[in-house]
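Feature request disguised as a bug: please show the residue count (409) next to 2-aminoethylphosphonate--pyruvate transaminase in the output. Example input:
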Amino acid sequence: MESAIDSSPAVSAMPSTVTCAAPAKGEPYLLTPGPLTTAFSTKEAMLRDWGSWDGDFRAMTAQLRTDLLDIAGDTAGEYDCVPLQGSGSYCVEAMLGSLIPRGGHALVLANGAYGKRIATTLGYLGRACTVLDKGDYLPPRGAEVESMLDADPRITHVVAVHCETSSGILNPIEEIAAATAKKGRKLLIDSMSAFGAVPLDVRQIQCEAFVSSANKCIEGVPGFGFVIARKTALQEAKGRSHSLSLDVYDQWDVMNRTGQWRFTPPTHTVAAFIEALRLHKLEGGQAGRLARYANNRDVLVAGMHELGFEPLLNARWRSPIIVTFFAPAHPSFKFERFYELMKEQGFIIYPGKLTVVDSFRIGCIGQVDEHVMRRVVQACAQSLRAMGVDHAAPPAVAIEERKMLAEAA
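Example output, currently without the count:
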């Protein structure tokens, strides 16, 4: 059996000197892929009211757009950032509806709930799509993308999920981008739970656009997302959107002309995001954030392995965002009881989304560090004892499932 504590070379942990303070109000840690536990100063930034048309708030909007482009590596000025009110899924829909022409055809790379949601969204938008369905967790590979693009000249766009949090897999976005560019198609990326921690540099990854959200790896609070797109793509999107509120071109045009959001902006969320960006920079930017998250993951996986828990994914595909663990085979283990016991000890975890075997997920992002992750492992051990579970080893079918992944990928 492979070691559960090997680090993936692409996202291996580096030393992190950041120490995260405990939630000031005593609330549980959110070990989820967002919303997540935020810094007290990020929450505190929301204690002031802002006028949405005022120059101070317009300056905040301009700052966040510039800062996000810096994180994306847009040194050539080829891209622009368009914030949009709403959840991450609003931004995904806005990107799809604005950047894919009505006569376009998308190849959707799906290996979990969020890839499938993209296909569903395209159906609502009336955009043609072909789905490469890899099941619960198998990664789409560049060679597969090339083959499908060769076979179907109708395809104009490829749509990929960067980190599929339903399993915790980090998809091979670099090879997907290379394959898409090689075949002369355009790539759209849902980087909702990756951007800001996992590298996504537009100088190295050719893409037409990508989306992310305030309440993910930048560690802000919910309320808006953002589209980072080529300026040429934004210009071509004029008059294309299915929706007034989700029209990326119109939002971009108005922001560039007036500095304002078209409709009431989430002022408090923007203020919190400005503080979150400051903390992100202080931590060392994307590289510093990745170091802490990857270390969190490695400490968690090693500790859980000692209890008998096994992760779904081998090290090659295991993201630093969230880890899926197989549920123990022990007959006394019931996830609902385990969840409540963990919550009583100050940790909110996530149920699993696999269809083949029972599982659960523990997030590694937000204002948590390795000391918190060790406490998470201790809480898991205490919860197992309370349930009368003496070992957390998964059923044999789970290990076979992981073996199949290793062989197929």
